[in-house]
């Protein structure tokens, strides 16, 4: 089972497409800078860490 779950993440960001795009961009950024916004991430992969940041309200999208 994946953590955080897709249902929990969709409460934060409605669109699966937006969630995937946001986490992929953040994962690429983390691979270049090695800076993570959360302490002690459970995942060892950048995409997993990005999804954990979404769950922790550290990574979000604003609508204009």
Structure description:
The protein is mostly helical and 64 residues long. The protein has one domain. Helix content is 55%, strand content 0%. The protein contains three helices and no strands. It has helices at residues 6-12, 16-33, 46-55. α2 (16-33) crosses α3 (46-55). The longest helix has 18 residues, at 16-33. The relative contact order is 0.22.
| Multimer state | single chain
Largest sheet: none
Strand content: under 5%
The helix-strand sequence is HHH
Uncertain spans: none
Radius of gyration over alpha carbons?
A: 11 Å
For the record, give the distance between the C-alpha atoms at the N and C termini, rounded to a whole number.
Answer: 34 Å
Helix amount: 40-55%
Alpha plus pi helix count:
3
Number of strands: 0
Shape: globular
Structural class: mainly alpha
| Global mean pLDDT | 92
Topology summary:
Blueprint: H1 6-12, H2 16-33, H3 46-55
Task: List its traits.
single chain; 64 residues; mainly alpha
Condensed summary:
This protein has 64 residues and is mainly α. The protein is globular and about 25 Å long.
